Amino acid sequence: MPNFATPQPITAVVEIAAGSIRLVASDRDDTVAEVRPRDESRPHDVKAAEQTRIDFNNSTLRVTSNRGFAFPRRGAVIVDIALPEGSDLDVSVASAQVRADGRYSDCKLASASGDFSVESVANIKADTASGAVTADNVKGAAVIDTASGGATVGDLDGDMKFRAASGSLIVRRLHGNVNAQTASGDVTVATAVNGGVSVQTASGELVLGIAEGTAAQLDLRTRSGDVRNSLTSSDGPAIGDETLVVHARTASGDIVVQRAAAEAMS
Predict the structure, then answer these.
(1) What is the mean predicted confidence (pLDDT) over 134-140?
(2) What region holds the DUF4097 domain (predicted)?
């Protein structure tokens, strides 16, 4: 199990064909990486683990496997990495589950198939063909593109762009801006405190909860669906109010705007 002295945050680059990746970022001054077969009784998994390289140079950890195995005979590996918090991630997989616990700076993900979850990140860019993306906390910019798969963000304190051919977006709490476009998929913002929400869906519903004390400017249109706005009209925000600007267009789907539920605001 290679161990590298890393008193500062690093960049971790992981490229595997199949399997799973688990990263744990914490307050530490070293980096540990381990690769093992997903199934030690399966020769292809054993071979894939043997051919996976672990290198460290110029503050960059690289874990790379031979991705030339033909599907479905290619092997699957399990990658475990412990690294300093505040590190950057660059992950590329063909078919793998990726989980990153702890706090990270920038995360980049490219995936043909597989889910990705990260606990806390400054900026995230994810491009998936099939798979869900989950981030508990985003402090900066989020750019997520998916052909088939949804995205869930807990607290978003920044700007987000979401594009999906088939997939839904959930943001639990928003301090910032969301720009979402889906061909087929719903968009839900449970509690919007300030910033802006811009949504375009061909087939999908928008549900927007607006925090108490936030004044919203609404521009809502749907071709085939209902617009339900339970907010009371006013001439403008009161002194001390947060503000939110909303533009929403759906070809087929309802638009629901309401005050955020108390449990969503806590």
Answers:
(1) 98
(2) 20-257
